[in-house]
Every structure is written in structure tokens, then in C-alpha cells.
Amino acid sequence: MSRERRIPTGIAGLDRVIEGGVRDNTTLLVVGSSGTGKSTFAMQYLNYGLEHGENGLYISMEEPPEQILREAKMLGFNLDRYYEKELFFFHSKGKDFVKLVDEQLPALVEMNKNFSVKTRVVIDPLTPLTWAIQDKQEQREIITKLFYTLKQLGPVLITTEEHAAPGETIGEDVLIPIYMSDGAVHLTYRPIGGAFNRALEIVKMRATRHGEEVYPYIFVRGIGVVVRTTPLVSAEDMRKYDDLFNKAIRTAADLGASEIVLERLAYVRENWSYPFSPKETLQIFFESQGLTDALTRDEIARRKEESIPSDIQLDLRELSSRASEPDISADLKGEDEGLIEIDSLRDLEEMVR
Question: Could you tell me which residues are beta bridge partners of residue 158?
């Protein structure tokens, strides 16, 4: 898992479930229907960067800069103080957008190479572009070029409106932007009354261990979006299943699992971030790899023989000590149904003798 520096989004609560923020030079797509607060996400994201010494570029496909600044002030974000100093706007419509992608933005990227200040970019919204270009291949090409160009400036947040048909989880009209982005957050609005009728779900976040729940959020003037989350599993909790994983790895090795399978188990151990036990997951994985208690004596011997180089001798004392260890199957599955029958090692020891 990547340990590179994370850039906080400034969206209260969201960073808690995406390992502290987004990666630099990546795109984060915020998808939602009308009324979910996509523009508030965008303004809050941009405002945080400006308050922490970054520059800002706001690409608006609909509203002029004056209206965006007014709406930001109503939310408690005074973007006026940065206007045309650290904050710059591109207001583009129709055919002008193609010129923006092909000429203006590449020129800006080239000019920005002489400056060390990071630029945080917002596109709000991308929707007019996806509506204007009906051909999916052409749409994909221009979005690819747009994302590639902007990521050279810094982290990018893009909003887009979706119009999901009945029964759709995510609208078909936003599938290409979601696919092309590095991360995607889905906002939903359920007008059922009460404080928490809006919710957020992380669709994807490349190279990031992220939360997988549905998180309600509210709007607070002066703060913006506040996502109600529970912290991810703490470092201490992440390690509490290590003994179980280690026993599973030893069991797999004793049953002749390949080095690749053992490496995968070790990787799962290092990245297990769920608050529940991995026993069932391990059981299913063992079954998918054919590591079950139904293994015959000949199959166990064959796997052992294939997994151990010929110049390595089995240590019978180690086998004996392993055979005398408590059966870990109860730890993996429970008292009545063992994941692995460790008793079969005694048969293997007799064969080796």
C-alpha cells in the first residue's frame, strides 16, 4: 500500500476515511444529482488549499466568477481576498471549452513549471461537456486530455451531475468520467426529512485504503460539508488479527501452498482494515485454492514435494513440533468445522520417514 504524502481535501470528515487525503497530481470526481451539494464540496476543497498557501484554479462551465464568489461567501468562504492573486477563474462555454483544453490549459501548465507553489484545481461542473459531446469515444478522448493536463498542476477535484434511471446505482452518463478519474465519491439525496438525508459513498480511490460505508453528511455555514464518519481501524486493531493470519500462513505452507499464495496471504495480513475477524474470508480463500481438509495423503505429499527445492532437507524435529502444536482450525472456523486438518501432518511425517 502506498505511503506517499497525502494532501488533505479540507472536507471535514472525508479525509478520515481516505488515509488522510488525496494523492498529489490525481483527480477526484464528485458525482451526484441536483441538490447534493457538489459545488459546496468544490468551494470547500479550493478554500482549504488557498488558506494553506496554495494557488487555486476554478474552471466554471456554467456560473461566472462573480456568482461563484457570492455563493462562497454565503457558505462562509471569503474567496474574494484571493481573487486574481492566488485564485484564478476560467469561465468556458460550448466550443470555447475545446480551445481551453487544447490551447489555454497546456500553456498554463508550461508557465506554471517556473513556480514552486502548488495549484489546486476545480472543475465545476463537468456536466456541460459530457452533454455536448454525444460520441463516447470523442468524449473519452477529451476527458483524458483534460485530466492529464490538469494533474500536472496539482490535485484536481471535478464535479459532475448524474441523472440515474430507475434501478441504476450510478447514472450511465457519468460512467466515463468515473472510469477516467483516480478517485470517485458518490453523493445521494433522499428527501425524507430529518438532518441526515444526504449520504456519501466512496466508489473508488486508487492506491488508497478507504472506508466502504455509507456516510451521512450535513452543511454547516462557516465550515461547509461535514461528513459523519467513524475512524478507520486503529493501528492497534489492525494488528490484533496477526496471530490468526500467521497461523493461516503456516497452515497453508504445511499443506504445500505455493510461494505466491503465501505472499498473497501476507499481503492480506498487512492490509486487513476491517473491524471484524478474517476467519470466513480465509476459509473461502483456502477453499478457492484447494487447501481444504478433503486433501488426500498423496496430494499433500505431492504439493510438499513441488513446493520444496530438492536441495532442502525436511527437518523432522520441526515437523514433529508442528504436529504437536494445537490445531488452529478452531481458531479459523470454530469448534465443529476446522478449516485445515493439521492431523494430516502426522501422515506426512510417516511418509517422509
Answer: 29, 123
Cβ(132)–Cβ(94) below 8 Å: yes
| 1 within domain boundaries | no
Do 143 and 188 share a domain, yes or no? yes
For the whole model, what pTM was predicted?
Answer: 0.70
Range of the domain at 321: 235-352
In 3D space, the residue among 19, 8, 13, 78 whose CA is nearest the CA of residue 45 turns out to be 8
Written as nine digits, the cell of 57 is: 484554479
Record the cell numbers describing residue 238, joined without a space: 489492525
Distance CA 167, CA 165 (A): 6
Q: 165 is written with which cell numbers?
A: 434511471
Residue 127 C-alpha cell reads as 456536466
Residues 6 or more apart whose CB falls under 8 angstroms from that of 285 comprise 265, 268
**Same domain assignment for residues 198 and 344:** no
Crossing angle of helices 316-324 and 344-352, rounded to 10°: 160
Task: Using the 3D structure, point to which of 200, 227, 254 is the last residue of a domain.
Answer: 227
Mean pLDDT, the chain cut into blocks of 10 residues (353 residues total): 77 92 96 93 96 94 92 93 94 75 90 86 92 88 94 95 78 91 92 70 92 89 86 65 91 88 90 81 86 60 59 42 44 46 51 49
Amino acid identity, position 148: Y
What is the domain-level CATH number for residue 153? 3.40.50.300
